Each structure stands twice: as C-alpha cells, then as structure tokens.
TrEMBL record, chains A, B:
GO terms for molecular function: DNA binding; DNA-binding transcription factor activity. This is Crp/Fnr family transcriptional regulator. PANTHER family: CRP FAMILY TRANSCRIPTIONAL REGULATORY PROTEIN (PTHR24567), FUMARATE AND NITRATE REDUCTION REGULATORY PROTEIN (PTHR24567:SF75). Residues 148-222 form the HTH crp-type domain. One of its GO terms (cellular component) is cytosol. It comes from Vreelandella populi. Keywords: DNA-binding, Transcription, Transcription regulation. Pfam families: cNMP_binding (PF00027), HTH_Crp_2 (PF13545).
Length: 247, 247
DNA sequence: CGTTGTCTTGATTACGCTCAACTCAGGTGG
DNA sequence: CCACCTGAGTTGAGCGTAATCAAGACAACG
C-alpha cells in the first residue's frame, strides 16, 4: 500500500502534519491488505484479540447479540477507520465485526501500536485523539438511544452519517448511498424493523428525508439536524491542534 | 500527595508493575489536590478543556442535558478514575461533571499526559488500556439502555457497580452504599424516577435486591447477574499483560 | 411466472411515562 | 415537645410510543 493510497495517512493528516518517518510508520500498518466480502465476519466475540485492522475500503459494523435474540449494532466503520481499538486492553474480542459491503482491510498486530508509542509522541497523541473521538461518537449515541424518540434517533443517525461521509468524501451534497437494510437500521437505532419503516415514512411525509432503496436524500440539512437535536460539537473538524500541547 | 496515598498508582498497578520513575510521573499528576463539595460541578459543557482530573476520593458523574429537559448520566466515576479522558481531542468540554459526594480531585494539564507519552511506553499503554476499558463500560451500557427492560437495566447497573466497587475495595460483601437518589438512578438508566421506584419494588419482591435508603444488599449475586444478562468479560480483572506486547 | 427477501400497512398489545395524591423521615421553629 | 415544612420515595390511573403479529405489496431473480 503506497503513501497516497493510504486511508490511514489521510485520516491522521486531519490531526497533525506528518513527517516522512511518521508516514512510513503509518504505511507499515497497511502492508497486509486483504480482500473481504460483504457479510463476512472479521472476528467474533471471544476470539483472541491480538490485532487491529484498518478499513481501507468498504463499510463495516460491530455488533453484539443479546440473549433475547436481538442484536445491537455498536458502530459503523468507514474507510480510514481503525477497527478494534476498544479491545487493546483485552485478550478477547468483545464485539463481532461484519462487513457491510465488499472491502479491503489491513491487519496489524497490537505490538505495532507500541512501536508507534515508542517512536512518535505526535502519532501517539493522534491515536489517542482518534480513540477519544470515537468514544465521543459512542457517547452521543448512548444519549440518543437512551432518551430520544424513534424520529429523533433516525434523524440523528442520518445526519451523523452525512457528516461523517462528508468529512472523508467532500463531494457529497444532500444525497448519499446508505447500504443498510431496515433490519440493520433497526439494530443500530434500537427499534424494530417495522417501526423503522414507519419512521422513515413519517420523515418522508415531513419532507425531511427521502429514501429510494439505499439512496438517501436530505433536502434540508438544518431541518434534519434540528429534528435529531443534533449538536455537532462532538464531530467538529476544528481539531484541537496537538502541537500546541507539546509546547 | 505521597506515593502510597495515590489512587492513581493503585489503579495503574493493576495493569503493570511500575518503576520508580513511572511512579514519580504518576504522583506528579496528583500534586494539586482540591477539596470539593457534593453537588458542585467540576466543569460544564462548553468550558475550555485543557485539563484532566484524577478523582482521589468521593464519587462523581458526568452527564448531558437534552432539549426536552431530561438529563442523561453518562458515567459514574470512582476514586482512582481519571476524569475527562474523552475530551483529549477537543478544545471544549462535551459533558458536565458533578460531584456526588464530598471529595478530593487533582487537576493536571493535558500536556502532562504528553510527558507520559514521551517518557514511558508502558505508562502510555496503561493510559490507553484504561481508556479502552472505560469505553467498554460505556459500550456495554449502550447495549443495555438501547435494548433491555427496566428490570434488566437496573439489575445490570447494580451488578456492575458491585463489581467496580469490589475491584477497588476488596472488603465488600453483598452489601454496599450507593449514594444515588432515585432521580439520579433514573438519569443513569434512561427511566423515569417513578419507574425506578417500581422497578426496585419488583426486584425486592423477587428477592434480588434490597435497598434501605442508600444501602443496597444483594443476597444472590449470580441471580442478579442473570437478571441483568450480565456478561462480565468486559470488566475482567485478568488484564492482558502489556509487557507481552513489548516483546 | 413463481420464489424469495425486503419493505409496508393494519390491528392489537405492552412497557414505561405522566400526572397526581399520598406516605414517610428528617429538619426547623414556635 | 409538638406542629409544620420539605424532599424523597411510593402507589394508582390513564395514556402514548413503539413492539409484536400478521397480511399484503413490491422488486429482483431464477
């Protein structure tokens, strides 16, 4: 994987400018690209956890099964994301991870992260910053799942996905592809598939969201954000400049 | 704050054995102890975020307000915890933090963490491990809040608190003090205060949990864990030995 | 043209919310 | 010492959102 193909470098560049050595370190994380099919599992709960994974292309999600048979999707991963950071402190996987679309992933062992810790304080900070941003995302969804209505949950999720996609893919304008079935949406939003359908109908009647198969159109972004009580401070792109801290 | 008073050292020692230099680094995080009263705020959403805080004694919680007027409590902090890790990548606070009881906190600036990154790879790993464990906790609660019944939520929360308290305070046996009002419990569990009351009555009828004011008794731990569908792999104490990774 | 899976719509049910009245313990002042 | 107040917790009645169950629509595919 060369430097300009690297999603990781692209991702990390958001946080600070990288030296040649740092870029080389990051590129080395992606030296084992593996093709992987939609629907296949990267790993399951209980598997040994000795590696991370960068998602080079395609979408993935992590999820947990409940005893009731329900499923809760925890996170959607987009290209450039690192999968499995949460399990750094554990010897076993806590979550299943499944590909949504075909894609390419690059495995690298936990100890590679320690090399980063050893060799570059700025990269260490960026890894930490990325982890803390992911955490912010999860926290925001916790609030939404715990307290908000189906309509708010749905609006919130769609707006969040819109922002995340725009961050990596500047050319998105009010329309994007969302390769998720209603069952998967239900598992994300903590709703039943039936109610997801109803909620989309409602949002469509209100003119907030139009959906045709897997294509989503959002005529009025602000209105959608308002409907989801979306507070975007947890996704802001004006990242705290990390070099300030080193001073 | 001397070495044997340090909650941080106690906390970090769970993850790896510490050299003298590393202990000194950690002690330096706690050089500014501040007394703080129950009910007072450490900070609020929007405040500048340039510091972390170690909680030396007392309990605290972080929370968010919703437009509806509801509140969601995100995390309960116990002595030894670091507060504010999540905001490392942000310039503003994303959450309010409030003391539950009187306590002592120690502020230290973000850049102190960078010194740790610079000076000790093991400590860096431990910080990372702690962050990833906190994240696992939040994720677990996300699943619970999104999918489980009031009875399960309550049982799950109580069992989790029991385990966390036992981890730091080995002498706990089926009974502990839980200094939370039902309103606060409601804000944690995503329920109304009224329903928290009903749920405790139910658990009490079932003989699973007895509560007298702020004292909680759990006659049968396994039964409570089962009622909360508690899977304790995310709290396991057999921490992945970090030095293995450095090899 | 039938089959399959996904989505939609309708009818019924249930869990937890809201509102309101009541209990109870602790604290305060006469 | 008692009367009163306050705040937390409990209990009851009615309601609403979303779940469940079931039937039907629709598209993709063989």
């Amino acid at each position: 994987m060369s430097e300009d193909q690297s999603c990781i470098i692209h991702h990390f560049s958001h946080y600070c400018s990288l030296t040649k050595e740092e870029k080389a370190l990051l590129v080395s994380l992606e030296e084992n690209p593996t093709d992987i099919k939609a629907g296949s599992l990267l790993w399951e709960v209980g598997d040994p956890a000795k590696e991370f994974c960068t998602l080079h292309s395609g979408w993935a999600y992590s999820y947990r099964h409940l005893e009731s048979g329900d499923r809760q999707i925890l996170e959607i991963y987009l290209p450039g994301d690192i999968i499995g950071l949460r399990e750094f402190a554990f010897s076993q996987r806590l979550e299943n991870v499944c590909m949504i679309t075909d894609g390419v992933v690059c495995h690298f062992p936990h100890k590679r992260l320690l090399e980063i810790f050893r060799q570059s304080v700025p990269l260490t900070s960026v890894v930490f910053a990325i982890a803390s941003r992911h955490q912010a995302l999860v926290t925001e969804r916790l609030v939404t799942l715990a307290r908000r209505s189906a309509r708010q949950k749905t609006a919130h999720f769609l707006y969040e996905m819109y922002l995340r996609l725009r961050q990596t893919n500047g050319d998105i304008d009010r329309q994007f592809r969302l390769p998720l079935s209603q069952e998967q949406l239900a598992d994300i939003l903590g709703l039943s598939p039936v109610h997801v359908s109803r909620t989309f109908s409602l949002l469509s009647e209100e003119g907030l969201v139009f959906r045709d198969r897997h294509n989503v159109t959002i005529p009025d972004l602000k209105a959608l954000a308002a409907a989801g009580e979306f507070d975007d401070c947890y996704l802001h792109d004006d990242v705290r400049p990390l070099f300030d801290l080193s001073a």
